[in-house]
Amino acid sequence: ERTEQAMLHVSNLEKRFGGIVAVDGVSFEVERETITGLIGPNGAGKSTAFNLITGVYAPDAGSVYFRGENVTELRPHQLVDRGLVRTFQISRELAGMTVLENVLLAFDEQRGESLWRPVVPGARRAVVRQERELIDRAWEILELFELDHLAHEDAANLSGGQRKLLELCRALLTEPTLLLLDEPMAGVNPTLEKKLLARLHELREQGYTFLIVEHDMDIIMNNCETVIVMHQGQVLARGPPEAIQEDERVIDAYLGG
Ligand code: ADP
Ligand code: MG
Fold it and tell me: Transport as a keyword (predicted)?
């Protein structure tokens, strides 16, 4: 039975690759308006869990509920329409386009349909209005992450950290409710990292929910309300950072090192 208040509820998820059970009966909830961390050693099944939740893979067993709705069978763009979005790496094709164009194109890419397609003349005015709104929104998001001064720069010229911010901008354009971020701080310098974390907290206060895979334990422990620990395809523990840091099973399997 799912709970209504959870933003995300995964139940007994299972995914095999040949003989490997990458995700082995995983159940957890992500509460609304939280930053929830998903941690665990390499190969624990974190990325596979993300791929199951976002519809990239179909699970061999188990279910995914988003805001109470069973979304297990949905494709990624159908989940984006409902507000469940993950960050994507900037693909190579998009280098050679400006930062602003990258943000705008994320709309098409994530939804699997094009707003920028040619249209019949009668529909043109409505499309222009929609384009205008989207462009305004793209600028607002770029301003929020202090990338607006780079809007007309080729995306290929951005630093690693700025690319991470751009990924987040691209996800935000689709107006998500739940964002899944796979290592958002990797390669981000300390100054940008501080800004990025501040923005995440602001967005959470505005009603966004985040599920984050991150290797940096300090970031996880200092910024997440809840931490989920995976180990060998299973959930080893779930709780507030203070409890997780003192959990002996977690220390033995992961933190002890
Ligand atoms: P994590 O993100 O926690 O490091 P992954 O979900 O990437 O873990 O991997 C979990 C396990 O599943 C690993 O043993 C990995 O080798 C395996 N695995 C992941 N993706 C695939 C795939 N596409 N094909 C085969 N094995 C995979
Ligand atoms: Mg991974």
Answer: yes
User: pLDDT tens, 81-135?
Assistant: 999 998 865 555 567 899 999 898 877 766 655 555 555 555 666 667 778 888 9
Q: What is the mean pLDDT of the chain?
A: 88
Structure tokens of 86? Answer: 């993950």
Nearest to 157 by CA among 89, 99, 87, 106: 99
Domain final residue, candidates 173, 192, 217: 173
User: Does residue 193 share a domain with residue 167?
Assistant: no
Q: Does residue 77 share a domain with residue 1?
A: yes
Residues 26 and 9 in one domain: yes
Ligand 1 atom at shortest distance from the alpha carbon of 15: 12
Give the range of the structural domain holding residue 114, as residue numbers without chain letter: 90-173
Q: What is the CATH number of the domain that holds 160?
A: 3.40.50.300
What is the residue with the minimal CA distance to atom 6 of ligand 1? 45
Which H helix or E strand runs over 21?
strand 20-31
**Same domain? 166 vs 180:** no
DSSP character at residue 208: -
- Give the contacts of 244 (CB within 8 A, at least 6 positions apart): 221, 227, 229, 237, 250
ipTM for the predicted complex comes to 0.98
User: Can you tell me which atom of ligand 1 is nearest the CA of 23?
Assistant: 10
Q: What is the average per-residue pLDDT within 174-189? A: 88
Confidence of residue 187 (pLDDT cuts 50, 70, 90): confident
Say if ligand 1 is within 6 A of residue 41 CB. Answer: no
